[in-house]
Structure prediction request, 170 residues.
Amino acid sequence: MLISLPLYIFPLCMLAAAVTDAWKFIIPNIVSLVLIPAFIAAFAVSGLGFDVLLNHVVTGIGMLVLGMLLWHLGYAGGGDAKLLSAAALWLGWPVYGHALIFVSLFGGLMAIGFLVTRLLLRWFPRVSINIPFLAKIAATKDPKLPYGVAIAAGSLFVFPQSTLFLALIG
Prediction:
């Protein structure tokens, strides 16, 4: 029972990041901070070797460097960069590469949803939108997408393929 606990921490943290980003346009630092020691605990009980640990750590650090560069250039938020690196730590390479493809696809779907929403509100201004983040995005002049939703969706989509997940389930 205790060995399966980490299997719940990663999805719950990703869900928390997605919900808070969609609702408030912020990913709390605590989400990424919880994922790091939870990864260490999960890895400790997984029975995986040092080479796999090194793969995960290098993938996480690499994504942190890339994410901070994107943040510095204004292409990503700081919370997004930290969440991307925490997800990379959990997924390792090459699974994280697959996750990035799905993050991009889910982000693209969000962008299309945003554009459709903006058009609908422009053509039918009396229509109300009940999806909180779409309503907020559509109402602003300089919209930003809550990319934590796409990061969480893409990461959770591939999580069952990760070495760590497979080692923890048995």
Observations:
- The helical segments are 5-24, 29-46, 50-72, 78-91, 95-123, 132-139, 148-158, 163-169.
